[in-house]
Amino acid sequence: MEISMTSTATDSATSFSSLGLSEPLMEALDALEFTQMTQTQQACLPDVLAGADVAVQAKTGSGKTLAFGLALLSKIDVEAKNPQSLIMCPTRELAEQVAEQIRLLAKRMSNLKVVSLVGGMPMGPQIISLRYGANVVVGTPGRIMDHIGKRTLSLKKVNCFVLDEADRMLDMGFEDEMRVVMHHLSRTSSAATRQTLLFSATFPDQIKSITDQYQRDAKIIKVDDGQSAP
Ligand code: ADP
Ligand code: MG
């Protein structure tokens, strides 16, 4: 594969090459033909990659998946026995889409496994996938909670936790499930290494309360003009 390393004075600030990403991630971006960051990615990636707890308000289609995908994959040790990333999404469809996008980004990271835990599917195959080793787990709140309850999902090595479409999860009535998962995370994984990222199109008080309670000195980034990805 040919790797294009062109970078001009005009696009260098908005180019992914300014972020110091690993080679496998840069190669994956190249294969996807993503060269320029969206405005949302420019606004949050420096903080997100530095390991900060960030809450991002940006509209749909602004490239949020890639923002947290790059962050969590930058921190993965593929040899680790337990999941290091946990992403919670409101619906089965969104969880599957996020899992797919992360798999594409992780294409050059050998042996990295992304497992989706969504409702409406039998538990058995999900339990087997977890047992065979999952680096990244993407799921819906109820099903993630079910696996925690059955002790088939360990959160003790989670170093990146993502609440995707947080406002929609609340609208769908998942507040209790979200809080149960976050409470369990705060009890089992190490606060010193855990990064919590929240993405939402809107910022009602309920989101502010989750941010205050579960994020460390959250930096809130609002992208008013959340330009869509090309
Ligand atoms: P959001 O979660 O903000 O609604 P997505 O993460 O689903 O948006 O991204 C929307 C689309 O834009 C996806 O098809 C994604 O692959 C694409 N995309 C994301 N970032 C870029 C980029 N920097 N360049 C080109 N396309 C991108
Ligand atoms: Mg999204």
UniProtKB/TrEMBL annotation:
Transmembrane segments: none
Leader sequence segment: none
Sequence motif: Q motif, positions: 14-42
Span of domain Helicase ATP-binding: 45-221
Residues annotated as domain DEAD-box RNA helicase Q: 14-42
Family: Belongs to the DEAD box helicase family.
Protein name: ATP-independent RNA helicase DbpA
Species of the source: Brumicola pallidula DSM 14239 = ACAM 615
